[in-house]
Design a protein that fits this description.
The two termini are 19 Å apart. This protein has 139 residues and is of the alpha+beta class. The protein is globular and about 45 Å long. It has one domain: 2,3-Dihydroxybiphenyl 1,2-Dioxygenase, domain 1. The chain is built from three helices and eight strands; from the N terminus they run βαβββαβαβββ. The protein has an eight-stranded mixed beta sheet. It is an enzyme of class 5 (isomerase). Keywords: Isomerase, Metal-binding. GO terms for molecular function: metal ion binding; methylmalonyl-CoA epimerase activity. Pfam families: Glyoxalase_4.
């Protein structure tokens, strides 16, 4: 298995609008996507482009959202996960499982429209890690 580029850093936020204002007005971000809902994952997301990766702003969609629990512990928000690309999601899944890593669910479609899965932070040095199949035609 070959780990690819860092695709994005996931940042949980109680308000995407407030976070977009921070990235735009304080940090000078110009490439900001329109927010959109991912009901299957219980989140609303928005991407902020940077020269070498993206920031994924993540807001909960209701009390059942996994982000709701994160924000209960971190009310101001904060880094939620790192996302790395891999060329083949099923090969990566088998590789992580073969190493004894705990996966949080089965591969599913993520915000970029490609298959993803998450690896438990206890198996990744304390960092929730998203593994994402490289989008077709990317880079």
């Amino acid at each position: 298995m070959k780990l690819g580029r860092l695709n994005h850093v996931g940042v949980a936020t109680p308000s995407i609008e407030a976070s977009v204002a921070l990235y735009r007005d304080v940090l000078g971000a110009t490439g900001v996507s329109e927010p959109f809902d991912l009901p299957a994952q219980g989140v609303r997301v928005c991407f902020v482009d940077t020269p070498n990766t993206q920031i994924e702003l993540i807001e909960p969609l209701g009390q059942a959202s996994p982000i709701h629990g994160f924000l209960a512990k971190n009310p101001a928000g904060g880094q939620h996960h790192l996302c790395y690309e891999v060329p083949d999601i099923l090969e990566a899944k088998a590789w992580f499982e073969g190493k004894g890593a705990r996966l949080l669910g089965e591969p599913r479609i993520g915000a970029h429209g490609t298959l993803i899965f998450f690896v438990h932070p206890k198996d990744m040095g304390g960092v929730l890690t998203e593994i994402m199949e490289t989008p077709k035609g990317a880079h």
